[in-house]
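S1.2 Input.
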Amino acid sequence: MAITGALVQWIRDNFGLIARSPDIETLARTVEDNGGVYFVPAFSGLYAPYWKHNARGVIAGLTRYTNKGHLARAVLEATAFQTREVVEAMEKDAGIPLQVLRTDGGMVENELLMQFQADILDRVVVRPAVKETTALGAAYAAGLAVGFFENLEDLRGRWSVDRTWKPAMDTAHRARLYGFWKKAVTRSFDWLESE
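S1.3 Output.
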């Protein structure tokens, strides 16, 4: 996946729908659902699991009823849908089902997104106490290398949960939303001529 948090920034900077990235949640909460709108952020192609360099971004399902809240919600949902696609590909390749999704990064502060992620993935989603785990992982690796940390068990003991979300969406609704996402994704295919 190439565009997740950057999509929120794009909506902020290119369209001015929000003043600050965290405002996307407030705007998305002004509507009950995405209103049938799906945003496929294939700005420079689609990455995993499609690998289509000639795809381009698509906003699908617009009606006269659509407003900026629906667009904001579609932006957030795009991250969750993309995550589900990557999780499904990983599960297929590894032959191991994912039990829990542990999240990190700036978007984990968005509680609407975290609940939707749990719902669309049909898995528990966990936000750690330390939200920037990429930087933390680098520090842990360096600490292990110089003997500051004793072993991996020492590191596991330092990890803790901030919040957990459980799926609350019914199976038929989840399948319907995901089906429309997949349909929207196919609309982005082969936008550019093959070279």
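S1.4 Remarks. The first helix runs from residue 5 to 15.
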